[in-house]
């Protein structure tokens, strides 16, 4: 860990000492690749600054943000949704347990809908013969509710 002097963003010359981590330290401690951190930064999910030696530096609080990103990804949330959630958090401190409760509550309905969809697919798997031909008159997996029967024969892209 390195301590650097960083000036406030205002016109004041007051400097504060901020403990920071290198990109390698964040990657190791968070269990992600350096390239993932660069990607998260390009997408605006995390931020860094450059040291006098032009090294990328992160505040220690970035570890919680990366943990939150990884958890949300494991839940299957799209990156855009994760970015929206992180944008609601103050940038000057790591996320707290209260922040996490608020974010997770906002995702609950979406997750419950995904769970219901996955359970329905699981329960229908035993009726699938796995041919992939899409020519069955009624296939609950590939042609749910037979919505596309009037669109003619052949494959159709479904959500």
Can you walk through the features of this model?
This protein has 159 residues and is of the alpha+beta class. It contains five helices and four strands; from the N terminus they run ββααββααα. A four-stranded antiparallel β-sheet has the order 1-2-4-3. The longest helix is centred in the C-terminal third of the chain and has 28 residues, at 97-124. The protein is elongated.
Which tags fit this structure?
159 residues; 4 strands; alpha+beta
Major beta sheet, strand line-up: 1-2-4-3
Output the number of helix runs.
Answer: 5
Overall shape? elongated
Task: Bin the helical content.
Answer: 40-55%
> Any low-confidence stretches, pLDDT <50, length ≥5?
1-17
The beta-strand count equals 4
Proportion of residues in β-strands: 5-15%
The rounded distance between the terminal residues' Cα atoms is 47 Å
Structural class: alpha+beta
> SSE order, as H and E?
EEHHEEHHH
Q: How much is the radius of gyration in Å?
A: 23 Å
Q: Can you summarize the main beta sheet?
A: 4 strands, antiparallel
Structure in a nutshell:
This protein is 42% helix and 13% strand. It has 159 residues and is of the alpha+beta class.
